[in-house]
Write a structure and sequence with these properties.
Helices cover 38% and strands 4% of the residues. Helix 2 (49-63) runs antiparallel to helix 3. It has helices spanning 31-47, 49-63, 66-76, 79-88, and strands spanning 123-125, 132-134. The termini are far apart. The protein has a two-stranded antiparallel ribbon with strand order 1-2. It contains 4 helices and 2 strands, in the order ααααββ. By secondary structure, the protein is mainly alpha-helical.
Length: 138
């Protein structure tokens, strides 16, 4: 479809629903680029871990103070946790992006509409003998 300006118009041709052109700066990065950037952040944070342990050993050798070395090691302890959180961060989903969770799916533990084992009758006590007797439906 062509509009009066001679440009193609449609949802797949860089125009939004109101007919305004979509800016290229608003376009999301491809998944591969997002993943590569997150992996780089993860590796950068994890790359500080080994040098921190070496620095702790060198600091102990220079000052012979275990508290300084322990402080350096304690600072490096949360680095893997932080690296994983940062690496798993992704841009928020858009409204038109498919969701994996579907509320209409069968629940994990479905409830039965009726008991799995039904008794055809109930037990009642006979008035004259006191022994239980089974009532059978007819």
């Amino acid at each position: 479809m062509w509009n009066s300006g001679g440009m193609k118009h449609g949802p797949e041709l860089s125009f939004d629903d109101e007919g305004r052109p979509v800016l290229i700066t608003r376009a999301a990065l491809p998944f591969e680029e997002q993943h590569r950037a997150r992996v780089r952040k993860y590796l950068t944070l994890m790359a500080f871990r080994i040098p921190a342990l070496i620095l702790a050993a060198v600091a102990y050798g220079i000052w012979e103070n275990g508290l300084i070395s322990l402080a350096i090691i304690l600072v490096s302890v949360p680095l893997p946790w932080m690296a994983v959180l940062i690496a798993n961060d992704r841009p928020p989903r858009k409204a038109d992006e498919p969701r994996r969770y579907d509320a209409r799916r069968i629940p994990l533990f479905p409830t039965a509409e009726r008991p799995a084992l039904e008794r055809p009758g109930t037990f009642t006590a006979q008035p004259e003998t006191g022994e239980p007797q089974r009532d059978v439906p007819r």
